Amino acid sequence: MKYKKDFNLNEYHHQINETVKFHEVDLMGVLNNAVYFNYFEDARISYVKQLVDKFNLKKFMNKSSYIIMAHNDCDYFEPAVFEDELIIHSKIVEINNSSFKLSHIVQNEHSGKIIAAGSGVVVHFDTETKKPIPLPKEFSDAVNLFEN
After folding, report:
1. Residue 19 is part of a domain; what is its CATH number?
2. Rounded mean pLDDT, 86-103
3. CA-to-CA distance for 97 and 85, rounded, in angstroms?
């Protein structure tokens, strides 16, 4: 587990905004812990779509392959409540042969406080064989350009 003081938001070049909706809070009025994973998914999809569009990654997102989650985790530091406006900061922190790992930081937009942090590992799969396949070099090149 990382601590809030260990995060540097300047290292995160992608972000999306989320507003906590009524159906996402529990009886205590707090954002349900599982919803953070939906926010991470929204951020991950946005990040990958931005890479595909910006760097024209035809070999990465096509009908012969897809990406699926292999692992998710989240550490919660402070609660979010109904109508809180959140910023989900994301970056790819590791690229392997057929997978990559994203890091996410959830920040309360008004207070500036980091309220949660998580990560996820995504695997690149062949649609026909249903087995992991290598990420194309153009993907890692695009990530390096985007992140640096």
Report:
1. 3.10.129.10
2. 97
3. 36
pLDDT value at 143 more than 90: yes
DSSP state of 16: E
Q: Which residues pair with 118 in a beta bridge?
A: 74, 104
Q: How many domains does the chain have?
A: 1
Q: Inform me whether the pLDDT recorded for 59 exceeds 80.
A: no
pLDDT of 7 over the 90 cut: no
Distance CA 43, CA 41 (A): 5
Task: Determine the structural domain holding residue 100 and report its residue range.
Answer: 4-147
User: Residue 57: what pLDDT?
Assistant: 85
Q: Would you say how long the chain is, in residues? A: 148
What count of other Cβ atoms lies within 10 Å of the Cβ of residue 45?
A: 12
DSSP string for residues in 65-132: EEEEEEEEEEEE-S--BTT-EEEEEEEEEEE-SSEEEEEEEEEETTT--EEEEEEEEEEEEETTT-SB
For the entire predicted model, the pTM comes to 0.92
What is the Rg, in whole angstroms, of the alpha carbon atoms belonging to the chain? Answer: 16
What's the pLDDT at 16? 98
